[in-house]
């Protein structure tokens, strides 16, 4: 079994090379002074720690930006991240530390983009996770939407890509073709092939194969459900069997 990320944070192995604002956040919660990346003693940090700490930091900054009570954000975070009851206080401390740091959300977003710039699908996972947290109070508010768009821009997503991602979460008259990243001019056979490839590319098993943490798998599962729902709407509209 893969060791829980919270166990990793509590162990000596957290003395890993990871600078920047996320490294400072890790050091604050673990009680360790992290070695600067260029003076590394322990090598590159695990991907699950980078992913989860990035999600924590950006979610906390989003909470600070929109003024939502932190507990709401934390509960939403714990819906997609496996957090033992015994570690709830550590998650709360992480959120509060991230909210209090002088670094703006841009610094966290740039660091996450730098770490995963070759894997846009993983950056999309981060955005999906943030949308999940943003809609914890059953609505994505204007300030949250603007914040998420700014994060997407730092992640180098186009406006169209952002609208496609947002359409999976925002309650509006969404276009299933936008969710599927498909064109209405495509034939039924083309749409079928496109949909099957989309399912293969977004299947949670791919996250597992890439060595990503359970929270990334949960995000991918939710995303795949939205893709399947959009396909069902298109298939019904076109009477595709």
Automatic annotation (TrEMBL):
Domain J residues, every copy: 175-241
A matching Pfam family: TerB
Classification via SUPFAM superfamilies: Chaperone J-domain (SSF46565), TerB-like (SSF158682)
Source domain of life: Bacteria
SMART domains: DnaJ (SM00271)
Gene3D superfamilies the UniProt entry points to: DnaJ domain, TerB-like
Alphabetical list of InterPro entries matching this protein: DjlA_N, DnaJ_domain, J_dom_sf, TerB-like
Name of protein: TerB family tellurite resistance protein
Source organism of this protein record: Microvirga splendida
């Amino acid at each position: 079994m893969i060791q829980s990320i919270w166990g990793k944070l509590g162990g000596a192995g957290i003395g890993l090379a990871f600078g920047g604002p996320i490294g400072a956040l890790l050091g604050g919660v673990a009680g360790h002074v992290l070695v600067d990346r260029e003076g590394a003693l322990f090598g590159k940090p695990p991907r699950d720690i980078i992913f989860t700490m990035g999600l924590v930091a950006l979610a906390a900054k989003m909470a600070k930006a929109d003024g939502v009570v932190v507990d709401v954000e934390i509960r939403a975070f714990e819906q997609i991240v496996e957090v033992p009851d015994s570690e709830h206080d550590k998650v709360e401390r992480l959120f509060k530390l991230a909210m209090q740091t002088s670094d703006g959300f841009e610094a966290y977003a740039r660091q996450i983009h730098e770490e995963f710039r070759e894997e846009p699908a993983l950056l999309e996972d981060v955005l999906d996770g943030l949308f999940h947290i943003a809609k914890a109070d059953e609505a994505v508010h204007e300030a949250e939407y603007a914040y998420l768009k700014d994060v997407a821009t730092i992640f180098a997503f186009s406006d169209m890509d952002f609208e496609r991602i947002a359409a999976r979460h925002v309650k509006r008259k969404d276009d299933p073709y936008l969710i599927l990243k498909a064109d209405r001019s495509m034939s039924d056979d083309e749409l079928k092939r496109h949909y099957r490839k989309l399912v293969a590319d977004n299947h949670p098993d791919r996250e597992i194969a890439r060595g990503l943490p359970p929270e990334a798998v949960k995000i991918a599962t939710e995303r795949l459900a939205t893709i399947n729902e959009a396909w069902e709407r298109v298939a019904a509209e076109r009477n595709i069997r």
